[in-house]
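This entry is retained here.
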Amino acid sequence: MPLSFWFVANALNPFQEQLIPLGNWIEGVVDFLVNNFRWVFQGIRVPVNWVLDIIENVLQAIPPVIFLILLGLLAWQLAGRGIAIFSIIAMAAIGAIGAWEASITTLSLVLTAVTFCAIVGIPLGILAAKSDNFEQAIRPVLDAMQTLPAFVYLVPVVMLFGTGKVPGVIVTFIFAVPPLIRLTNIGIRQVPGDVVEAAEAFGSTPTQTLGEVQIPLAMPTILAGLNQSLMLALSMVVIASLIAVEGLGQMVNRGIGRLDVGLAAEGGIGIVLLAIIIDRITQAVGKTDRTISWKERGPVGFILSLTGSGEQKQSVS
């Protein structure tokens, strides 16, 4: 090929060959981390595994009937009688289709991931609300965490942490924590400035203003972020099953692998019912338009009315 023709052809289409070997660079970084800092990532497994074991052992130790009763009482107290009845029926349906143990495993994974989301996400959201520079620095990171396809996380996580439930929790945490950070930041920033100034004028320290004024006023938005994290965590269970995480996602994965429509449908229906239960309860917790206190509703209000301390208005809704 004449040199002039080769030059013109490459000038018109300079992307025939890879110009920036980004994939090789990323692979090199991951290999460097695996070879030199694997002990750090194995150390991170310890607290995650500890929390996961506690939550899973407690949930697995509760007999299904007792679990349904406790779930109904909790849902009644937090979300009302209608949601309580639905929650009991939905969990009973999950048990009836043979997915009880898988659903408890999935619930344990989701609760563990969301626990770490709350521990990490809420402080980072508060820091972002307090510092514009920190918010600008963390925003592209959150954008990448939310838009990067979830499958992309799996390879480096498996290389650094191995396979199993703990890497599943870590993958779920990475995918689910950004909304909580964003909404905590937004909630704190939306607190009216005159309210903050009034608190400071009455002598509140910055810590008191944050803890007694800003966080309580921002709590509905923070709880909305927690709800989003919960739902995203549930949406990850099928993807996490690809790295040997048991639970409802594994039922779907096995169903796909064996072309077993029934098994995949059972796992999928279990995920949907579990998602609806969690969503309705957490949404009810975040509602701000309630006119009665928690002492006047649910099983607590019912017991107080029976013991005679319910002279106050009682509405066991």
